[in-house]
Amino acid sequence: MSALFTPRANGIFKAVLVILVAGAGGTVAALMGYARVPYGTGQQEQIQQPVVFDHRHHVQDDLIDCRYCHTTVERAPSAGIPSTELCLNCHSQVWNKSPLLDLVRASWFSGQPIPWVRVHRLPAFVYFNHSAHVNKGVGCVECHGRVDRMAAIEQVAPLNMGWCLDCHRDPYPRLRPLEEITSMTWMPEGDRAQLGRELARKYDVKPRTSCYTCHR
Amino acid sequence: MSTAQKTLEEVHELEGPPVLVGRPGDRALTESLLEPVLGRTRRGWLLLLLALGGGVTFWLISLGATFAIGIGAWGNNIPVAWAYDITNFVWWIGIGHAGTLISAILLLFQQKWRTSINRFAEAMTLFAVAMAGLYPIIHLGRPWLFWWLIPYPSTLQVWPNFKSALPWDVFAISTYATVSFLFWYLGLIPDLATARDAARDRARRVVYGIMAFGWRGSARHWQHYRIGYLLLAGLSTPLVVSVHTIVSFDFAISQLPGWHTTIFPPYFVAGAIFSGFAMVMTLMIPARRLLGYRQVVTERHLENMAKVMLATGLMVSYGYVMEHFIAWYSGNAFEQFAFLNRWEGRYRAIWLAQLFCNVVAPQVFWFRWARRSEVVLFVVSILINVGMWAERFVIIAVSLTRDFVPSSWANYAPTWVDWGLLFGSISMFGTLFLLFLRFLPAIPIFEVKELRRELEHGGPGVHDAGPGHAVEEVRS
Amino acid sequence: MPSLGLPIYGQQSGLDARRWRTLEEHDAGAPPASREFQPGADLAPEGLGRRSFLQLLGASAALGGLAACQVPREKLVPYVRPAAGVVPSVPGAYATAASDRGYAVGLVVTSWEGRPTKIEGNRDHPASLGGTDAIRQALVLDLYDPARLAGFRHDRRDLSWGAALAELGALARAHEKDQGARLRFLVEPTSSPTLADLRARILRRFPRARFDAWSAFGEGQAREGARVAFGRPLDAVHAVGAADVILSLESDFLAHDGDPLRHGREFAARREPANLNRLYVAEAGFTVTGGAADHRLRMRSADVLGFARAVAAELAGRHGLGALAPLGAPAAGPHAKAAAAVAADLARARGRSLVLAGAAQPAAVHALAAAMNDALGNGGKTVTYRESVVFDGAGGGVRSRLGALATELRDGAVDTLVVTAWNPLHTAPAELGLRESFPEVRSSIVLAYREDETVRAARFRLAQAHFLEAWGDLRARDGTATIVQPLVAPLVECTTEVDLLAAFAGVGQLGAYRIVRDGWRARAGFGPPPPPAAGREAAASPADTNRGVPRDPFELRWEEWLSAGLVREGAPAPATVALDAERVARAIAAVPAPAAGLEARVVPDARLLDGRHSENAWLREFPDPVTKLTWENAALLSPATARRLGIASGDEVELARGGRKVVGPALVVPGHADDSVTLPAGYGQRVQGAVGRVAGFDAYPLRPADDPPFAAGLEARPTGRRVLLAITQGHFTMEGRAIALAEDASRLGEAAHRLDELRGAQPTIHAPADYSKEEYRWGMAIDLSRCIGCGACTVACQAENNIPVVGKDQVLRSREMHWLRVDRYYEGSPEDPRSVSQPLACVHCEAAPCEYVCPVNATVHSDEGLNEMVYNRCVGTRYCSNNCPYKVRRFNYLDYRGTVAPSLKILQNPDVTVRARGVMEKCTYCTQRIERARISARNVGRKIGPDEAVPACAQACPAEAIVFGNLNDPASRVSRLHGDARRYDLLHELGTRPRTAYLVKVRNPNPELA
């Protein structure tokens, strides 16, 4: 009777076995990689905002301090998204005819808020508090990056738990004097970690890693 | 036929039943043992499959309900947060113990009588472990997160808690499942090759051919086979003990009265083998009748298994006694109450049923007639299966209904989903087993042939029933 | 830092009760809160988004870091104009008041971006002192009730408020010609000065109109008793704390009668071994007060007068209080010995004793109590009398209240009937025939919060505003007033009692805000109100008022009143009284001798009162403080009586009296008086919503036609059917285990030795973790001696921690979710036991059994030693609950949030994660409050103050039985209590080292009754 399998069968059989095993391992590896690459964490995602708001212009050209618009960053969990009224503090005078600001004026007259799109999203069970960080010398730039160079705000940090913990375990290289808290360009000369230790003493920085610090 | 029977009776009186009736030739053995696999489908088999199919549907519906509704679909509550789910889990895992014991330990002890039942038991083990393996996942409130129990470097920088017994459960069960599967499959290979060669149609030959991994029975193949088989046997021997020991830790490490006991590991392992053999018996007796395996699975096998059940049954009984003794001797009021509650509490009936099935029933095996009577063996083995389920329920759920602070005491009542998961998993188990009997050689053909050769050179426990008789046996 | 004209008030967390800001912007200009509820605007940065996101949690959380990709982009919706004082993600706290039988209970309400979420007591208010009860806290749930009435309907025509106002005005004018002879008002008893003014105005306009006041369980008998004793309807104000010996004549003064919150606070202070008082309670049903008693004397309600007279006779005879001689009458009954002992005790404590009579008891008993207090020289010391500031109509019993109106209705003598009283058709005795005559009234106007029987029968119905949406005012018993200020613009179209009466007074167009405000301007002796224009302008620029530089001097005072929640002006002084023993004697003589036979007692339910809270799911699932029964009512009776009638708990029984039948389940209550059946009212209404429909039977048909609300002649027989009662505690004995300990004061000394085995270090192979070096070591102490078992803590916890309501079926499966339960244990014979209540939540073991069994580290220890439950890590093995010896963990067996109405989702506390299906949860010591306090403290570089981090339960507890704080601060109250001689640890032998310590309950029994 004819041979049931040709000699090539062995090769195919072995190949299949290898593919099965490698495939299983590869899938796991791929998923774990995905959770770590910017694409997976949603970094560098371009987000269309309803109003074309350019931080470069406001921060660099007009030298407006972050806290002028994000008013509650020093005393509340939320940094605060500026109200339409706040926008019009200036824009009732300057660029008050600009078509770019139509939506803002419309909002003011209709009373309908401007629906900004959230860029930095934390899961619902994470209770991040801006004031707790800003008052202890963690500057805006540490998490939000060079906003002064962003045409549209994008997420520069992975914002995953490991990233939070890295800083909560070793905050020193990321601390700065409170006067420089909103500075985008501040760079100390010398060892920053060393300076950080002094500042930590000065501001009584004691980051905790207990779960309830962020989860409630 | 009748003459054959008489001669058998006489022989039994002399030296106990043989491990192999007659001296069928290789061809005869191959034919008889492959007949269920290569022969036509039997109607009884189909009907049985259909019946079990109903149970499987019930099972799938219950699983669906569990995922859709949540654990709330079960009767679990606070304080009884574990009930049928974990009871079924421990029960199945226990049943899954006979296989490796028979295959590995008896192999190492060179017990001849294991040969014809080992694959049978291994298959049963695999299916039981498959059933058991489901529960740790479906009993989770958020089953889609089960992989958090597996240690791996995550972006959360959080690891499983190795102080808990549950991650070790994952390791124990997956290891046990893997090794049992390899062991079982390795043993199958030569017979798959036999099936390949004996198969008449091409389709079967191709399928069995692929499954046989190109086995040609060359000396080198056999040498590798022997080494591999022995290695796996050595590997799985400690597993027989370790798996259920770790499962018992799920309870022993807690401080709940009725769980918090150092005697659990040996007591659980004994119970596991006890229920495992009972299940083998439950399946073997009908299979042996229907598929004509009488000749290779003889009273000798049944009797030996009965003896093992008697022994492990006594160990389990000892466990019950010790639990009560320790509860009394510890002087711990909570502990004592937990055990009084078994006798006097609301679930008394289940406790008494457990005692009858696990302690009283096996005692009949002191008598030879009982050890050799298919009916008695079948009934008792069923009783033991029930009894061991009851034991786990009493330990897990009943202990939870009455713990430390009386204000939180509450009772437990199962829902239809709980029943669906219990009977459904039994049906699924049965279905898998039926498929196994139909499509794979349930008796290790080559080992039987081997055994016969050994016997021909005057092995013990053999007698000559004459070739003619042998042929008849095969035909019957 | 830039302030941008943000307000000076309310920037701190809601825990700082001293700095509230006002919300008067609500009425003038565009109220910020209403803007809150414009489309989309409810997605404030830290607001709803959090929870809507959580709905998606399930699978996406499974993917951890990947989750981001699956979730749609959230919107960030800022204010158009910043709402003054509202800082997104920072709660504000505002003072207001709710009514309790017409009197004010001062409250502080937490509000997130204009959303009220939590009601707490106002520590400066005389009727609260910081505590609250379950009912007051649960009111916030009603605000968001999707089933509440909305809009205005007249003869099936839907009207706008403007149109409704016009029609009301027309109706009113039509009555002018006959001076309102055919115009009648049926209102709730109320102390509101504004409503009083409006009533006066209306009566000036319609001299022949009449106001009647009705609520099913008022204080009419008490005031009537005062009228008998002193000649005018006064309110007795009891200084419970000043009394060494207290005799309660069926007065549930710790949970219901008088100012229960103040009573509780004062009473608890006297339950510490140092200065123990002694409480005798004579009662039929087992009440919270009865549970706190040193001697509970169970007797039928009808026999209480007899017992009181026996005591009076003893006082007169043996202790020389001759004045009581004509009032007393020696008793032969089983309580004779007790009467003698009580009398002796009272006599020993002249001027330091107190006799209280229960609201249900007839006027004669109140009069007798007044006489006894008078004779004992307690007047002015433990009891003072004040002119009642509650408008209570004719007062007295049912007949004197409703008799006249009922007759007029039957004779068709009323054209217009304005009803603001709660559902009189349900609560009024059937004999009065309101059900039949009311629908015949040509124009019946009903102001109600929910659809009910009376609303159904009304021609003209007006949706009532929630008190958190309305302007108004109330007075406390001592006359202190509180301006009721709204925290949020009405969520639906509705109006207030002020607006309604104003329409009849002809000033409907002014609006409640101006009416209340101008009224107080006048009362405070300020000039006439400025022309409306100025007023509106003043309010129109919130920045100004908030900078505290108002235009008009009154503004400043007004601001103070609103922010403090107190107006001390115009509080009447205590009345000087002279007892008229003659009249008391006559009143006593007029009371018929108690009839034999089974007594039916229709009582206000501990949760629903007269039924007005029937649709409140929190209260429905709140276990009755005594029976632990949830969702429904049952006929409560003693074991002996149950045996005699062949009834067991859960049997359905048919109860008949005076030709009326009701059918409901029976529940055997240890310690209930024999031959008496207690029937909590308020359930089984004819018109009910989804919540009310769940279970319960109407007990009102068994209520006698006139007060008192109890009478003999009840027949009870089992129908043979069974009812499953959802009771949260199945086992009421301790099985001889050291769980909730109580000890007689005399034996406290030797008990100390036994206590040493229940506390302190234990042998262990592991050195226990040392938290003494940490900055904070949070701990709790629960003093069982102070705890009265009212359960306010349970509801406080539910409101603070977004704890779901699971429904009767789930409670039957013992899956209730309350993190904090109040266990109740009975000691002694089931016939006449003593009881101990024990609040039990997670005790935060330092060596926690739950932690080491969790496979995924979802419950772990914090650096400060708290036992943390991390919902987002939990996979739901439930092993932690199995291994928790206290069984205080709760599991989300079902998706208890899936069915919640959208309007209820905005009730949830944004500071606490809403738990998903399949997740374990438990008490966190209100970690959100700790962290909020920690951050605000650390932001300014200081330590957390002693009272800054207070869990909801401790904050709400009227008895201050729950104390929380830092154990590493030796000066803290909790540290002292942990060192107390009465301290013990629950299940200490297990070596769990709980952070919550218990203090043994002390009893002070009278040796003569031993």
Comma- or semicolon-separated keywords:
heterotrimer; A: 216 residues; 10 helices; B: 476 residues; mainly alpha; 18 helices; 71% helix; globular; disordered N terminus; disordered C terminus
Instruction: Tell me the fraction of residues in β-strands of chain B, as a range.
Output: under 5%
On the 0 to 100 scale, the average pLDDT of chain C is 87
Distance between the termini of chain C: 69 Å
Order of helices and strands of chain B: HHHHHHHHHHHHHHHHHH
How many distinct beta strands of chain B?
A: 0
- Uncertain runs of chain C are 1-70, 533-548
Percent range for β-strand residues of chain C: 15-25%
The amount of helix of chain B comes to over 70%
Total count of strands of chain C = 38
Taking all Cα atoms into account, the compactness measure Rg of chain C is: 28 Å
In short:
The complex is a heterotrimer of chains A (216), B (476) and C (1010). Chain A contains ten helices and one strand; from the N terminus they run H-H-H-H-H-H-E-H-H-H-H.
What do these coordinates show?
The complex is a heterotrimer of chains A (216), B (476) and C (1010). Chain A has 216 residues and is mainly alpha-helical. Chain A is built from 10 helices and 1 strand, in the order ααααααβαααα. Chain A has helices at 8-34, 38-41, 55-61, 66-69, 84-91, 102-110, 130-134, 140-144, 161-169, 192-203, and one strand at residues 116-117. Chain B is mainly α and 476 residues long. Chain B has 18 helices and no strands. In chain B, helix 7 (165-198) packs antiparallel against helix 9 (219-252). The longest helix of chain B is centred in the middle third of the chain and has 34 residues, at 165-198. Chain B is globular and about 70 Å long. The termini of chain B are close together. Residues 1-5 and 459-476 of chain B have low confidence and may be disordered. Chain C is of the alpha/beta class. In chain C, helix 5 packs parallel to helix 27 and helix 11 packs parallel to helix 13. The longest helix of chain C has 16 residues, at 161-176. The radius of gyration of chain C is 28 Å and the shape is globular. The relative contact order of chain C is 0.12. Chains in contact: A-B, A-C, B-C. Strand 1 (116-117) of chain A pairs antiparallel with strand 1 (75-76) of chain C, so a sheet runs across the interface.
